[in-house]
Amino acid sequence: MLARFTPTWMVRATYDIAPKTLTALGVKVVFTDLDNTLIAWNNPYGTEALREWMTALAREQIQLVVVSNNSHKRIKKAVAPLGLPFISRALKPLPFGLKRALRQYHVQPEEAVMVGDQLMTDVAASNGCGVRSILVKPIIDSDAWTTKLNRQLEKIVMRALKHRHPELKFRKELINGQHN
What would be one Gene Ontology cellular-component term for the protein (predicted)? Predict the structure, then answer.
């Protein structure tokens, strides 16, 4: 059961994921959660660090796509200033949204990664369809009310994961070839 929630890698922040490392890993598309992964859930405009990361991804010819459980309207409004494509109502932790994204962007699971801040949704969906996952710490400590229950369950699952896999820890950067 814990395998479903085990991330491939753990990195402190989304913007610490080096696009050159992703290229070396054969990644063509980065799927990312929206709230508290790409942008703070209560600040839809993003940051300069996000824009710099997006530019670095583009230089490496890596497509960035938001895959979120949010409604089409909510995501469209949030990503409009960033000009990002998205998949709404992804139904994470089920793999349907990620499978749809793989088909839409014509990539195999090994050519993609999913970046997210939740074990219970992002990592579980990734593992459900064979996409490597990168768990990141939430951008801010507060969550939308809908996420608070998941966070409590996540603490229990993370304790069990760390007990079984003591090597699991957040790192400053993604290191090519080094899985947690």
Answer: cytoplasm
